[in-house]
From TrEMBL:
<dbReference type="InterPro" id="IPR011499">
    <property type="entry name" value="Lipid_A_biosynth_N"/>
</dbReference>
<dbReference type="GO" id="GO:0009245">
    <property type="term" value="P:lipid A biosynthetic process"/>
</dbReference>
<feature type="transmembrane region" description="Helical">
    <location>
        <begin position="63"/>
        <end position="79"/>
    </location>
</feature>
<feature type="transmembrane region" description="Helical">
    <location>
        <begin position="6"/>
        <end position="24"/>
    </location>
</feature>
<keyword id="KW-1133">Transmembrane helix</keyword>
<dbReference type="GO" id="GO:0016020">
    <property type="term" value="C:membrane"/>
</dbReference>
<dbReference type="GO" id="GO:0008915">
    <property type="term" value="F:lipid-A-disaccharide synthase activity"/>
</dbReference>
<feature type="domain" description="Lipid A biosynthesis N-terminal">
    <location>
        <begin position="10"/>
        <end position="81"/>
    </location>
</feature>
<feature type="transmembrane region" description="Helical">
    <location>
        <begin position="36"/>
        <end position="57"/>
    </location>
</feature>
<keyword id="KW-0812">Transmembrane</keyword>
<protein>
    <submittedName>
        <fullName>Lipid A biosynthesis protein</fullName>
    </submittedName>
</protein>
<keyword id="KW-0472">Membrane</keyword>
<dbReference type="InterPro" id="IPR014546">
    <property type="entry name" value="UCP028440_lipidA_biosyn"/>
</dbReference>
<dbReference type="Pfam" id="PF07578">
    <property type="entry name" value="LAB_N"/>
</dbReference>
Length: 94
């Protein structure tokens, strides 16, 4: 496999991970009959975003690089808030 094909596969893999986050969110919401954003949504966002960011850097696409890097910051920040909230709740129960 040549370099271009490998990077194309990487790009599609990143897009697949990114798409999985919506499937996870949709299924969780359907089960609970309300809008839910499960923790897996943020992990798929980070994995897919990181892979797509790498692909964008390889392609030297500044628009794509900016979009993915901004998204990654937001995904990590949301995980930080979730973990912080979990620690506060655990502390309150103790």
């Amino acid at each position: 496999m040549d370099k271009e094909t490998i990077w194309l596969v990487i790009g599609f893999l990143g897009q697949a991970c990114f798409t999985c986050r919506f499937l996870v969110q949709w299924l969780a919401s359907e089960r609970q009959k309300k809008s839910i954003i499960p923790l897996a949504f943020w992990y798929f966002s980070i994995v897919g975003g990181a892979i797509l960011f790498s692909y964008a850097v390889y392609r030297r696409d500044p628009v794509f690089i900016l979009g993915q890097s901004t998204g990654l910051l937001i995904y990590f920040r949301n995980l930080h808030f979730i973990k912080k909230d979990q620690r506060v709740k655990a502390y309150a129960r103790a």
